[in-house]
Amino acid sequence: MGKYQRLVICLMLLLPLLHGGSAPAGKAYIWRDKDGGIHFSGSPPLSDEVGSRIEEREFKEPEGQEKAKPPEARSPVERAVQSTFRLRNKRGGASGFFISSTGLAITARHVVQGITYSMKAEVPGEKERFRVRVLKKSRKYDLALLRVSIRRPVNYLEIRDPRTLVPGEEVWAVGNPLLAFRETVTKGIFSRIFLESDWKTELKMKRPPFKFRGDWVQFSAPIIGGNSGGPLVDKQGRVIGVVSLGNTMHRAINFAVPSTYIREEFASYLE
């Protein structure tokens, strides 16, 4: 076997690696220039560059190297369920949801506040528990940004501005109540954007009964402990809020952090 033939064989073995191990089917072009130098490329050379016959070699993506795909959802709400995971550690846990296919995720800040034990994410359809890293906690709102160390693409939620909601519009809360009833969906309606100032003007309170700031999405879908950090979505499965606060006396009056605060607080991570 000559030097040129050995080079061609080595080249064909190398091409899939040059394309990250998942290159689509295509061709490689190999030729000698007028000075006798050997060249290869993914496109045909110009005629004035070639000093010998151009050889074409087809290559295909190696079997078993196809890029994994997230599971297909049969409805927008099911996609929201697939995008929501259970957070666990030795002290308890709650819920979170993906906002990118690469594992960027959101939960409520009070879920990860003061956490001293490592947290794991239990993703729908996966037996493995994935390590979770807290990237940033909001100083004002009940929000935290997470990175889940999952190696495959995941379903994730798009963000809708809750100020475009109409009172009476249907909404769904997705989460893991009591950490025992995983992937639970409850249905309710959107009432209004409860302004931060309303705690004082309407409820005659000097300050809200919690330390977080900002306006709130008021909704009626039932929630209990374990729902915190899960998404509140519209009928298209777009996130409009992050479940934060439930009213134990009046189950139909619950609150979520507006989804617009996600962009406001974590813009540098979403670019």
Q: What does the secondary structure layout of this molecule look like, with pairings?
A:
Blueprint: H1 3-18, E1 26-32, E2 38-41, E3 55-59, H2 76-82, E4 84-89, E5 92-98, E6 104-107, H3 109-112, E7 119-122, E8 129-137, E9 144-148, E10 170-175, E11 184-194, H4 198-201, E12 216-219, E13 231-233, E14 239-246, E15 254-258, H5 260-270
Antiparallel strand pairs: 1-2, 1-3, 4-5, 4-7, 5-6, 6-9, 7-8, 8-9, 10-11, 10-13, 11-12, 12-15, 13-14, 14-15
How does this model look, in words?
- The radius of gyration is 26 Å and the shape is elongated.
- It has a 6-stranded antiparallel beta barrel with strand order 4-5-6-9-8-7. Strands 10-11-12-15-14-13 form a 6-stranded antiparallel barrel. A 3-stranded antiparallel sheet has the order 2-1-3, covered by helices on one side.
- It is built from 5 helices and 15 strands.
- It folds into 3 domains: 3-59, no CATH class; 76-148, Thrombin, subunit H; 162-260, Trypsin-like serine proteases (Thrombin, subunit H), CATH 2.40.10.
- The relative contact order is 0.15.
- The protein is 15% helix and 32% strand.
- Residues 4-25 and 61-66 have low confidence and may be disordered.
- The chain is of the alpha+beta class.
- The longest helix has 16 residues, at 3-18.
- The protein has helices at residues 3-18, 76-82, 109-112, 198-201, 260-270; strands at 26-32, 38-41, 55-59, 84-89, 92-98, 104-107, 119-122, 129-137, 144-148, 170-175, 184-194, 216-219, 231-233, 239-246, 254-258.
